Amino acid sequence: MDRDQYYMQLAIEEAKKAQEREEVPIGCVIVINDQVIAKGYNLRESNQNALAHAEMVAINQACEKLKTWRLENAELYVTLEPCPMCAGGIVMSRVNRVIYGASDPKGGCAGTLMNLLQDSRFNHQCEIKSGVLQEECGNLLTMFFKEIRSKRKKSKNNQ
């Protein structure tokens, strides 16, 4: 297992924590100098907060821990391609490198729908690596939504 796979596996463990809470299973870890400095997973439903995406939770935690908003040497590992809000948070916090697992055809802003992380009009750009443990990351999401659809179907049939 290479270094990126190792840290993505940690992000997957965070995603599983979200899944246990019936949250969309997306997880994130932030690494500086081969040390995990922050972890996060989706808490949007639990906190009823639209901003509580895995990346935003982890960025907030990293900034608090380091007592700075600048995460210039950081690598951010996330199981799903960042959305527009998270991509903006990544750019604004000056994360150096973003590594993600599954692409997001409906909201991905690290190359799928658009690429906010490398847009030269911003004063900061990030290195991007996609597809790390892509199948495992994608399967977490696929199974989660399949289970939700199944529960809804059963609920309708029981009415």
TrEMBL record:
Similarity annotation? Belongs to the cytidine and deoxycytidylate deaminase family. ADAT2 subfamily.
UniProt-listed InterPro entries: APOBEC/CMP_deaminase_Zn-bd, CMP_dCMP_dom, Cytidine_deaminase-like, MafB19-deam, tRNA_aden_deaminase
Instruction: Cite the EC number.
Output: 3.5.4.33
Q: Give the GO biological process terms.
A: tRNA wobble adenosine to inosine editing
Swiss-Prot/TrEMBL catalytic activity:
adenosine(34) in tRNA + H2O + H(+) = inosine(34) in tRNA + NH4(+)
Positions bound to Zn(2+): 53, 83, 86
Subunit structure and binding partners: Homodimer.
- Cite the CMP/dCMP-type deaminase domain residue spans from the record: 2-120
Show the NCBIfam families listed in the entry: PRK10860.1
The protein's name:
tRNA-specific adenosine deaminase
One of its Pfam families is MafB19-deam
Question: Top-level EC class, please?
Answer: hydrolase
